[in-house]
Amino acid sequence: MLLPIITYPHKLLKSVSTDVAMFDTQLHTFLDNMYETMISSNGIGLAAIQVAMPIRALILCIPDEEGNQDPSNILEIINPRIANPIGKTTYQEGCLSVPGFYEDIERYEALTLHYHDRHGKECVLEANELLSIAIQHEMDHLDGKLFIDHLSYSRRKKFEKEHKKALKEKK
Ligand code: QAP
Ligand code: CO
Known about the structure:
Oligomer: single chain
Helix content: 25-40%
Order of helices and strands: HEEEEEEEHH
Structural class: alpha+beta
Mean pLDDT: 98
Strand content: 25-35%
Shape: globular
CATH class: Alpha Beta
CATH architecture: Alpha-Beta Complex
Number of strands: 7
Strand order of the largest sheet: 1-2-3-6-7
Bound molecules: 2-phenylethyl (2E)-3-(3,4-dihydroxyphenyl)prop-2-enoate, cobalt (II) ion
CATH topology: Peptide Deformylase
Largest sheet: 5 strands, antiparallel
Radius of gyration: 16 Å
Low-confidence stretches: none
């Protein structure tokens, strides 16, 4: 089932999501629906709050060298915590909740992630490159933060102006 993706400036995108407590069938169905929604919108990552569900769950499917998103590469990440972040890297990010806008954002280059899978099993993952960036982008959503919240005052003003114009042109 496809879920509606909420977009900026929807106020729910500012919610701080709460930990998942039950790793049950309802959660599994929700994660399956998130995956279908992300793929059908050409996304590589989606946090639960982007479909209006304030729980600490996110999914990622990083494309391979050919740009293919293999379903076996899907990561379902629940109640994540970052350990040992190192380095700095910049990447031009986008977001399904801020469609059509892309900005350079600085992130940690590499990190260790502790999280639970859909069954509640404890997992540890070493991430670098695009995976590390995507994890940080999606984890920001769990705390009500968007990539545009990292922009300098002047770049944010420029974004708001362009966004206003884009909204007008859509109508
Ligand atoms: C987050 O973003 C991310 O504007 C996932 O028109 C971003 O999947 C992780 C998308 C950058 C790592 C690096 C955006 C699709 C998808 C759009 C996405 C659009 C269509 C964004
Ligand atoms: Co996003």
